[in-house]
């Protein structure tokens, strides 16, 4: 039991970290050891995302997240959250990821509802440890395609198989999506769309593309090529893009983050999308009750024009994350 000095502020939504028994089985331990020893930082970011969803479970329903994250990432993020809460930090670690996940979930559900039950294809590029195909009931009429590196999808499949075979907390693992297809390909390669189509993707069918936490890891040319390929589908069918963009200034590791756009709401129409809506964390559709403090970092940024690159109070870079929905269809014209 923690001593009084290190006790967390009382809040029933933040219980002590309890690791599921499945994480301690030999198979799962070996899988996560492989991740630590063989995956590069981009691939390991999938586990970090899963850890965020697992530890913000009072807001995000993702019962597989702890298994997909692994003990090391769960423990690391939990200690950061614990420190932030003890220090009454304005932004608790993982809050960006929580808001981002909730935004993508809510936007995906709203778009699917707008299709009036006709269903759609949902393509998740850089799917990593995403478990939406298991946790979102709105996908019940949708064909989901998860696209990522072969080694990532192989490990993910092994972990999910362990969950299905477990007699404990994950024994009722069921798929929410109408169908789920994993497509093992690097989207930095030129043939990723061909492999997607070979796997059953139909270019003429209504499609929602999810690019969560992926674009900024690509080079400028790679990211632009991916966006152009998606935008080209607007002339074939109703196409919706859900993506997050970083602006140029960033305090994150520049060694693995490359692509940025200060004005994605200008960029996407130039590629072929006819409607674009941009939000920043803290906006009404990207708040979720987590951004109520007017002095937190994100609300302070929202009060500044987007053209401002450095905060006038302290000169720090204005590191923005834009949440963007873009769409187009054959019967729409670009304004």
UniProtKB/TrEMBL annotation:
Judging by the UniProt lineage, the source's domain of life is Eukaryota
List, alphabetically, the SUPFAM superfamilies matched.
Answer: S-adenosyl-L-methionine-dependent methyltransferases
Q: Name one GO biological process term.
A: methylation
Q: Extract the GO molecular function terms from the UniProt entry.
A: methyltransferase activity
Which keywords does UniProt give here?
Methyltransferase, Transferase
Q: Please name the Pfam families in this protein's record.
A: LCM
Which InterPro entries does the entry link to?
Answer: Ppm1/Ppm2/Tcmp, SAM-dependent_MTases_sf, SAM_mthyl_Trfase_ML2640-like
Keyword flag Cell cycle: no
- Recorded family membership: Belongs to the UPF0677 family.
The protein's name is S-adenosyl-L-methionine-dependent methyltransferase
- Native species of this protein? Morella rubra
């Amino acid at each position: 039991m923690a001593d009084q000095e290190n006790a967390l502020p009382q809040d029933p939504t933040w219980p002590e970290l309890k690791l599921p028994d499945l994480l301690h089985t030999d198979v799962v331990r070996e899988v996560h050891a492989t991740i630590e020893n063989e995956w590069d930082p981009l691939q390991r970011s999938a586990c970090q995302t899963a850890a965020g969803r697992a530890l913000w479970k009072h807001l995000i329903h993702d019962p597989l997240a702890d298994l997909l994250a692994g003990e090391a990432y769960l423990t690391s993020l939990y200690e950061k959250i614990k420190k932030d809460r003890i220090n009454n930090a304005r932004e608790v670690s993982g809050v960006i990821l929580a808001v981002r996940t909730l935004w993508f979930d809510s936007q995906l559900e709203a778009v699917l509802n707008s299709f009036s039950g006709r269903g759609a294809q949902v393509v998740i590029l850089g799917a990593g440890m995403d478990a939406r195909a298991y946790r979102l009931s709105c996908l019940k009429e949708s064909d989901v395609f998860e696209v990522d590196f072969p080694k990532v999808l192989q490990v993910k499949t092994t972990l999910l198989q362990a969950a299905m075979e477990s007699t404990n907390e994950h024994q009722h693992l069921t798929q929410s999506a109408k169908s789920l297809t994993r497509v093992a390909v690097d989207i930095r390669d030129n043939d990723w769309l061909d492999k997607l189509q070979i796997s059953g993707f139909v270019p003429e069918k209504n499609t929602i593309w999810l690019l969560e936490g992926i674009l900024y890891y690509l080079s400028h040319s790679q990211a632009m090529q991916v966006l152009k390929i998606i935008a080209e589908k607007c002339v074939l069918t109703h196409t919706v893009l859900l993506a997050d963009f970083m602006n140029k200034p960033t305090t994150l590791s520049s060694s693995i983050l490359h692509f940025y756009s200060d004005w994605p709401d200008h960029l996407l129409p130039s590629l072929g999308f006819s409607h674009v809506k941009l939000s920043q964390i803290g906006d009404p559709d990207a708040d979720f009750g987590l951004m109520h403090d007017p002095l937190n970092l994100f609300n302070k940024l929202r009060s500044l024009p987007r053209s401002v690159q450095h905060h006038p109070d302290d000169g720090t870079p204005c590191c923005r994350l834009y949440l963007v929905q873009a769409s187009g269809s054959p019967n729409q014209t670009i304004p």
